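Hi team,

As requested, here is the filled-out complex form for the S-adenosylmethionine run. I kept the field names the same as last time so the parser does not choke. Let me know if anything looks off before we queue the next batch.

— J.
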Amino acid sequence: MSRGSSRPLTRSRPEDVSSDPKPESLVARGREIDLRHVERGLSEVPDDRFTFILSHATKLVPDRPGLRIADIGCAAGAFLFQARVSYPSAALFGVDILSALVDAAEQLVPHARFFVGDARSPELARLGPVDVGFMVTVHSLFDDVDEWLDPFLSLLGHGGHGFVFGLFNPHPIDVLVKVRRSGSEAPFDPGWNMVSKDTMRRHLGVRGRQVVFDDYRPGTPKLPDPHDPLRSWTEALMTVLPLA
Ligand SMILES: C[S@@+](CC[C@H](N)C(=O)[O-])C[C@H]1O[C@@H](n2cnc3c(N)ncnc32)[C@H](O)[C@@H]1O
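And here is what came back:
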């Protein structure tokens, strides 16, 4: 399908997020926890993380008419809502695996076009090539770097820039994490993997791509939420010194 034609990705993917007994297939269909993006909606207050990402992007790729931008794992469109301020002239596209989120995004962010699709599918390339691709707190869902990196790079094409925000281990260890609430019989959820910067450099190096890391420090410390133990918060490092 050619660029700019209607619906390059599917809108009809079935998505029973709760009843599958095989944890591996959860990622293919999305996680129930991500449906909370529908209730969250949009905030008029800019998200500090999005501001950080967009300031990097606009330095390398300033706004201009004709620019094509895609957000993979876009949820209900909050990032693209904020991206419109940095990229007023660009065409914005969002892809998410959960059609409920895509439906919400279409309502909330009418200046962008949204599609149901899988970040790991070669189909993603049909949306491209884009000039700028974003993945914001999504790659930690996947155990295998290649399965999301190859579709992401094929979406970007040769001259495109990609910005992947989330957990990267500064030490040369790749960590896979699955979680579920204590006492629950539900399948374990993915989403907190921490692939190392080293592995990312290697995977991009063999594909002839350069990579630069810039560590994010939250502007305002995030406090733990006693009702949501899965939410991240800022940890402070306290160093106890010996008595003089
Ligand atoms: C942790 S949320 C991040 C949402 C958004 N990028 C943000 O930062 O607010 C992960 C998002 O990725 C989506 N997702 C999960 N698996 C996916 C896949 N295989 N392909 C595309 N999107 C996926 C989820 O539905 C969810 O919206």
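Two things worth flagging: The longest strand covers residues 91-96. Residues 1-7, 12-26 have pLDDT under 50 and may be disordered.

Thanks,
J.
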